[in-house]
Amino acid sequence: MPELPLLIFPEASVADRHKKNPPLGGPVTPTPERQVERIAPRIKELEQSFEAHCAHLKETLQGVIEPEQVVVLETVGRVADFYKAVRGIEGLEWLAEWEEEDIQPDEEFYQDATHKDNALSGLVYLVMTNSAGLKQLLRLWEAYRKDPNHPTLERGRTKWRDVFHHLRDIHPWGPVDRLRATGLYEEWSERKALGNEILSLEVELWFRNDKEASERAEKVVAREIEALKGVVQQSAYLPQIGYHALLADLPTSAVERIVNLSEVELLRCNEVMHFRPAPQCVTAPLALEEISELGNEQELPPPEGDPVVALLDGVPMSNHKLLANRLVVDDPDDWSSAYGVEERVHGTRMASLIIHGDLDKNGQPIRNPLYLRPVMKPNPRDFANRPRTEEIPGLAVDVIHRAVRRLFESDGGAPPAAPHVRIVNMSIGDSSRLFDRVPSPLAKLIDYLAFRYRLLIIVSAGNHASEIDLGIPRADLSSLRSDKRKLEKAVLAAVQKAAWARRLLSPAESINAVTVGALHLNGGGGKVVPNWVDPYASDSLPSPVNAQGPGFRRSIKPEIMLPGGRQIYSEKLGTSHSNATLRVVRSTIGPGQLVASPGTSTGDTNSAIRACGTSNSAALATRTAAQIHDTLVALADSSGSSVPLEPYLSCLIKALLVHGANWGDSRDAIVGHLGAQDKISLSCLLGYGAINQERVAVCTEQRATLIGWGELGDGQAHRYRVPLPPSLSGQAVQRTLCVTLAWLSPVDPAKSGYRVASLWLSPFGDDIEKRLANDILRVKRDQADSRRVQKGTLQHEVMTGHQAAAFVDGDVLELQVNCRSDAIPLTEVVRYALAVTLEVPEGCRIPVYSEIRARIQARVAIKARG
């Protein structure tokens, strides 16, 4: 069918903001008298812990510093604006609050009489206290203890009554908290087995807005690192995201004492929040096997203009035939000198996919040159792999922050490096850091940078190369392999069963970024060795290596899926296991996507390998985003719209990139193997689904896509009207309504809500819009959970129906974009983009596009005359 351009909504009208449906009522909690019984012993333990800490400091440091301690208050349910009550008390310093989910109910805490088994949610409040602050806390507790039903609390302190009513636990932040879910034990075990004598740690400190307090804390922690024969290599303090950390090299023997919770002063430092292994971001080892020699491709058009896409990755092979004169490599720190040519693997691979796509597809290169900033180096301690693995040296947060800031701001007197960039690719992540409750520092940084510089940042979900236990005896694997459908079912069931261990990898939980997962699919080719196992026969299933959602606050992650190559496995041999177990095969010759690569001989500039993973998928998503950018720029040039498009480009690209996502065949394959699945389970595996790259930025006569954009402040709303094509009225034909709302939100890293701007589209949640969608178009929601689509910064809804719908010429579907503050008061406007598609099957001869376009043009003309 002929391709037609996107349609642009007429300017939206201002409307009254809709209200969201209120959540369920607060949980049932113990009586105030019972709370006194429960909490009194914990308060006493807290007081004794602080006294012991003070005595220890006096003995070891002779009163050099004021004793401080982090107090953790865990509640069931919420206490609004508790941070204000804390900040008003001398000696208490608000640090942060974290949201807790899946709190198991018991006889004293539960939802209500009819929902006693429902999981509960609550908050973790983190407060720094000194002697004066602890006395104030104890005084507040004493007032509550004396009369828990009506405590005598002065003005501004009544929030403490609510906290004590809902308090589940109170305790000091201790050694176990500093190691929880950090991956340090696993990293230490691996390094010890390799015989490494030194291990690099990221020591994250509690963030203090008081710079002097932060400097004092840093000196205390540095002194304890040096006492363990360690060396502080770097420090970073970023108030924009509430981050303060040190990079330290420690003897492996000292780390052993830390992970074993030995009496180590560093482990007891109240200034420390977490210990984590560093460097955080490392590429998987990939030995170059046989190298393919690329043929003599057709002459390709040269790039033009300024870069609009930035790739943060390893140093590429810039003179590769496919990359020569298409890259702008900005290497201000001369990291290229650390690489051998054969080690420039990951950056070359990502650049190849962004510029050309899977080489088996013979796609056209993107129009603009690709900006590449090296943020990785070969690991100097990697003696096991050739080529060496690549890693981010130092603190990843600091490296990425400097790299992105340099794009738009002067650096050392030099002008901004690439101010026209609107899309940033980060196909690297922290393989040791599973998403756990709160966004990681790197995810917080990405969220801040995306809003600060109006960027679409694309990240990979992360790869889990862990073994897959099929849950059957090893002797049965041979018969299972002979039936591809049964093998597919067994692998899929095993992957879903291990979902908790296959969670998102930092920074995939970022709320402003688009996170990309991989489909088990590639263009073709590659060798197959007899003992290799291709786990899936279907092309539509998510790759077995995918990290899985949900994201922060149960948002839908990853949002989209693109081909990531067919990952091959082999049977695990040996005698250590009884069940059939599959292991990832890291091969550059097996099935996978064909990408440019360094060769094995000097001067080889025309080689390629095959590779798989979510990094590939993110690179392909970035390539699609670049193509959408070009479509939008051309559309703006030809439309003559009075509303400038450029400030909204990143949001528009974000909306259109996801707009083509659909569960489609992927849902059918999963349900066929695992039985009926609820929408939440499906979205954890599929996000919003696989995108159709061929249709995200074009229309046909049977498919009309309209786009709109604007900016909103707290309490504001815009209303859009979609003209309904009269030829569709009365037709019993399959129809699909797809709507996508995208925005970039400021964030507050110290609040549990985190996301400052909550936007949502209400064609279905409000009674009026529900009537319009269901009664006029007769469609209903087909994919994704109605609440979870509003948890992040991308709301994507697919509605379908086939019954005849009656309406008259002039009827419209009204869609409203609403905005309100979330974590803290919203004091600035938030830009957004909206995409809406109405579609009928090709060949049914209903001119959806022409009829909608004509009615939009008529409305614009009437408005212009008025």
The low-confidence runs, each spanning 5 or more residues with pLDDT under 50, are 862-866
Coarse shape? globular
The residue-averaged pLDDT reads 90
Broad structural category: alpha+beta
Describe the protein:
The chain starts with 6 loop residues before the first strand and ends with a helix. With 866 residues, the chain is an alpha+beta fold. Helix 1 (32-61) runs antiparallel to helix 3 (131-146), helix 10 packs parallel to helix 11 and helix 14 (614-639) crosses helix 15 (649-659). Helix content is 28%, strand content 24%.
Summarize the helices and strands and which ones pair or pack:
Layout: E1 7-8, E2 13-16, H1 32-61, E3 69-76, H2 82-87, E4 92-103, E5 120-129, H3 131-146, H4 158-166, E6 167-172, H5 175-179, H6 184-193, E7 198-205, H7 211-227, E8 231-238, E9 243-251, H8 252-259, E10 272-277, E11 292-293, E12 309-313, E13 327-329, H9 346-356, E14 370-374, E15 377-378, E16 390-391, H10 396-408, E17 423-426, H11 441-453, E18 456-460, E19 468-473, H12 477-482, H13 484-497, E20 514-519, E21 532-533, E22 560-563, E23 569-571, E24 579-584, E25 593-597, E26 607-611, H14 614-639, H15 649-659, E27 661-662, H16 664-674, H17 679-686, E28 690-691, E29 703-712, E30 716-723, E31 735-743, E32 757-761, H18 767-776, E33 780-781, E34 794-801, E35 812-821, E36 830-839, H19 848-865
Parallel strand pairs: 1-29, 12-14, 12-17, 13-14, 17-18, 18-20, 20-22
Antiparallel strand pairs: 2-30, 3-5, 3-6, 4-5, 7-9, 7-10, 8-9, 11-26, 15-16, 19-24, 21-23, 23-24, 25-26, 27-28, 29-36, 30-35, 31-34, 31-36, 32-35, 33-34
